[in-house]
Amino acid sequence: MTVQKGDGMNTGEELIQFIKKSPTAFHAAETARQTLEAAGFSGLREGSSWENLAPGGYYVTRNSSSLIAFRIPEGGANGFQLGAAHSDSPTFRVKAKAEWESPDGYTRLNVEPYGGGIFGSWVDRPLSVAGRLVVRTEFGIRSQLVNVDRDLLMIPQMAIHMNREVNKGYAWNAQTDMAPVLGSRKAAGTFRCQIAEAAGVQAQDILSMDLFLYCRTPGAIWGADGEFVSAPRLDDLQCAFALLHGFLQAEQPKKIPVYALFDNEEVGSLTKQGADSTFLEDVLRRLAGDKLPRMLANSFLISADNAHAVHPAHPEVSDPLNRVYMNEGIVIKFNGNQKYTTDGISEALFRLMCERAGVACQTYTNRSDMAGGSTLGNISNGHISVNAADIGLAQLAMHSCYETAGVKDTEDLIRVMKEFYNSGWEESEAGEYKIL
After folding, report:
1. Strands 181-184 and 127-136: what pairing?
2. Strands, E, within 285-336: which ranges?
3. Fewer CB near the last or first residue (10 Å), C or N of the chain?
């Protein structure tokens, strides 16, 4: 069940292709599902029986935007090695009544923010729409992925001649400024038809749509030594990609390895498919039954979500001592108020994993006078309580529609996660943790 390299591509190029195939959380889950299928994993349905699963690899999806995969080893196991990332990124959701015909000669789309994005990064660049349709069938309804795979939209900003103060700062209005132009007034009434054509369905059969804007700018590897990668949605598809490949490359697991890809992290995870749902707990309980509490006591969770690299123009916004840099190691994240779940035990265990993999690590904290974001670790731990570490990869321009990270970091995280999924730990009565 090893993942195959595609056509001689290096890891950075593979990451860019993974992102290109994943313009929305729905597509990210589908790309992961296809990768698992190619590696020999079998799909399960939550509504079906999972009795007497044979040793091997399995996956299950929820809402078509979250996915959990696991491998049952020969002879069983007494715990789980859990890795979690998220499939969503800040963007704009297309509203139910989408077309906005302006009296000034344009047809625009009516959108609203999803997550905490940097609005200014979305302007003056080609955009398009992707997501999920729910269409009528002979028997009821079915879900259908859609991607209008061409340059369809643009959000133009005002010329400096009309806004002389723009370089002193501009307050973007989500309702008026961020509605993208679809076309001239002649485009009125065409949006639904274009979506239907891209999905290969009839417009009259579309009952509902979960559609989002996405940035069309292709990913790129750049820098004096080709050391950086820039692309849309690196937060958190870079970690989602690396965890998936580490999971697939681990062939000698000592625990039950689990790969979790959650939707809706950027808006708080409070959905049926988010980390604050029962999804992970439901899956683990079906695998462990009444042994779950004991197995969780022998388990470990890595929550992987990117971290802020020192900014070249503004190093002062980083903590003066716990600063992180691209391509200089996996980031271990800490927060005094437990926004991140890392503690002394989980840090030490993760450091040993990095040592085994031959990969450097570095520590990150926010400045004490600046609030940071939260991530999957503590949210998941509210449902399955295990030793857990929040980690990530250093990046610039987080929540821009085009972000930058390190090429080497992706490779390093794959190596660490392969080691993690192949290992495990046990706690002795004396309180000593033994790495397996």
Report:
1. unpaired
2. 300-304, 307-308, 330-333
3. C
Paired tokens of 248: 């697939």
Q: Where are the beta strands (DSSP E) in 181-255?
A: 181-184, 206-215, 220-222, 228-231
Number of Cβ within a 10 Å radius of residue 171:
6
Indicate the pairing of strand 91-101 with strand 106-114.
antiparallel
394-396 and 403-406 strand pairing: antiparallel
DSSP string, 66-111: EEEEEEE-TT--SSEEEEEEE---SEEEEEEEEEEE-TTSEEEEEE
* Bridge partners, 43 (sequence order): 59
d(Cα 284, Cα 274) in Å, to the nearest integer? 16
In the structure encoding, which two tokens stand for residue 97, read together?
């009544």
Q: Is-above-0.85 flag for pTM?
A: yes
To 10 degrees, what angle do helices 234-249 and 407-422 make? 40
Q: What is the C-alpha separation between 243 and 261, in angstroms, rounded?
A: 9
Interatomic CA distance for residues 254 and 145, integer angstroms? 37
Q: What's the per-residue H, E or C state across 139-181?
A: CCEEEEEEECCCCCEECCCCCCCCCCCHHHCCCCCCCCCCCCE
Radius of gyration of the chain measured on its C-alpha atoms: 22
What are 173's two structure tokens?
Answer: 């209005």
The model's confidence at residue 386, banded by pLDDT at 50, 70 and 90, is very high
Instruction: Give Cα 202 to chain centroid, integer Å.
Output: 31
**Contacting residues for 203 by C-beta, under 8 A, at least 6 apart:** 192, 193, 195, 196
How confident is the model at residue 9, as a pLDDT? Answer: 66
